[in-house]
Amino acid sequence: MTDQQDRRTGAPAWTAEPAPTDPPAPSRPRSLDPRELGFTPQRPVPWLAPLLLISTGLRTLLALLFGAYLDKRELQNSLPSDVTRQVGPEGDLWLDFVADLGDGFNATYSVAYLLSRPELEVGGHRLPRGQMLLMGGDQVYPTASGEAYENRCKGPYQAALPQPPTVGPPPTLYAVPGNHDWYDGLTAFLRLFAASRDSNIGGRRTPQARSYFVVELPADWWLYGLDGQSGVYLDDPQLRYFEEAAKRLTPESRVIIAVPEPSWVKAVDHPEAYDTIDYFVRTVIAPTGAKVRLLVSGDLHHYARYSGPDRELVTCGGGGAYLYPTHKLPERIEVPPKDTLVRRASNSESYGLAARYPEPGRSRRYGWGIFGRLPLRNPGFATLLGALHTLLLLAMVGVAAPRTEAAAQRLFSIPLAVMLVVTLLGAVFFAKPPSANGKRHARHWILGLCHGFAHVGLAAGGTWIWLQLDFHVWPWPLPVVAAAVVYGPLAGLVASQLTATYLLIAGSFGVNLNELFAGQGIEDAKCFLRLHIDADGTLTGYPVAVDEICRRWRADPDGAPDAAWLSPEQPLALRLAEPPFTLR
Q1: H or E element at residue 320
Q2: Distance CA 550, CA 552 (A)
Q3: Which stretches are tagged as biased composition: Low complexity (predicted)?
Q4: What percent of the chain has pLDDT over 70?
C-alpha cells in the first residue's frame, strides 16, 4: 500500500490495501520427508571444502570484475517506486530484524521458529511477534539460485509460519540483499522478494518492488533499506528514489538505515568501506534535518552494538550462518574514519562498544574448537592437504633416494622445487586471498610464509619416517600407490591439525579470523533483534540470544493452519544479549 492511499482513506495502514489472495494452504507434513515439506533441509555449508573455495572465489572475482555489467538495479527504475507504510492497529509497531540466515537447516529454522511464535518471554519481557520482518542480507549461502533460496530460506520460513496469523493483520517481510545474494546478479533475489507472483513467503506478505525500499513507521520513524551492490556504490535510480522519499522527512523525523554490511567496523582497516553510507546520509538525509538514529546490518555473524552521541550502530548477523568471533572487535571506532579519502566526509564521531554476543571469553573458547571441527566439518580440505603432502613426499623421496627411473615414472614425477613453490604460494594466498578486501600487510606475508614453511617441515619429517620403511624400494608404481593409500590419509589428518594450529595463532593477530570460525561451522550462539516503536515515538531494542539451537524436530500434522509445521523436541532457551536499549 502507498502512503498516499493511507492518507487519502484515513484507514489504518494495514487495511488501506487488501492483501493479495493467498495461495491454497499446503497440506501439513506428517514427517520431515522433503516430499512432504516441499523443500530439502540442508546441512551447514562446509566453507573450507576445496571445490566450494574455488567456486566462491571465482564468483567473488567475477562479481568484482564484472559486477557493473551484471548490475540489474538500473533496470529496476521501471518498477513501482511506492513508499509503503507500516503501523500496527494500536499505533505502535513490533519489528524483527534477522540477517545471514540461509545456511544449515537446524540453525536457520531454530531462528525462524522463534520469529514465528506469537509471543516470546525473554528476560522478564513479553515480546509479541513482529508485525514486520526485515531480513538484512545473505538470505542464502553459498551462492544465490532459485533452488538454494527454496531450500535454505523460503522453505524454512514458510514451515515456521505457513499461513497468516488468524488474529490481526498479516505480517510483512522486507529484505536487503547481501553479497551472497548478489552472486547471480540479484536475479533470484528479485524473483523471490520483489517480483513474486504470490507476493508472500509463508504467512508474510512481501510488498517491496525493488531491491531497496523506504517504509514509513509509527511516530515519524522511517526505515531506509539500501542496496549497495556489495559496498560498491548507490546507483542513480536508487538515489532518485530515496531523494524523492526524503522530501517527506522533517527535522523531527528519525531514520533507521538497514545496510548489507557493518562498514563502520570494516572501516577500521579499510576506511573507504564507510564512504557509501556517509555519502547517503550527507546528501539524502542530512539536508532534511532528520536524524539517523540507528544503523543496522548483518554480514558479521554475531551481535554487537556501538553507541555514539546520537546514533546506535548495530550488527546482528546471527540468523543461521556460522558464528563469527567477537573477541577481536575494536573497543572504540571513529565514524566516519578520520583518514577517509572522501573530501567532504561528515565530521567524525567516536563510538564505543556497548555490547556484544557471544561474550569475549566464550568467543575465545570457541576458537580452540578448530582442532576437532576442522577435519570433521571439512573432510575435503583434509583430503586436499593429504594429497599435497603425498606429492611433497614423492618429490622429496625422489631427491633423497634417487633411483634409475623408467620413462613412465619420470613422466609422472613432479620436481621438488615446483612443489615447494606451490606450497609456499598456497599458504600466502590462504593468509590473504586475492579476492579478499584490502591489501596484504606484513603480518599476512609473515604468517603465510611461516605456515608454508611449517608444512614443508612436516613433509620433510614425514619423508624421513617414510625412508625408514621399505615402501620406497618397491618396484614402481607400488611406492606411489602405497603413498596414496597409507601416507596420504595420515598426512592429511596431521596436516589439518597443523593448519588448525596456524589458524588459532594467526587469528590472534587478526589474520584468517574468518577461516578460523568458518572452518568450524559453529551453529550455536544465534541471535535476532526485536524492535518496538511505541506510539509516543520511543524505540526499544531487544537483542534475543539463543545459546544452543535445536537439532531434533518433530512434525505437527494436526496443528492450526498458522502453526509451525515442525516443533523442537526440547524448548529453545532464550536470553537477552544485553539489557534493552532505548532511542527517542
Answers
A1: none
A2: 6
A3: 10-19
A4: 85
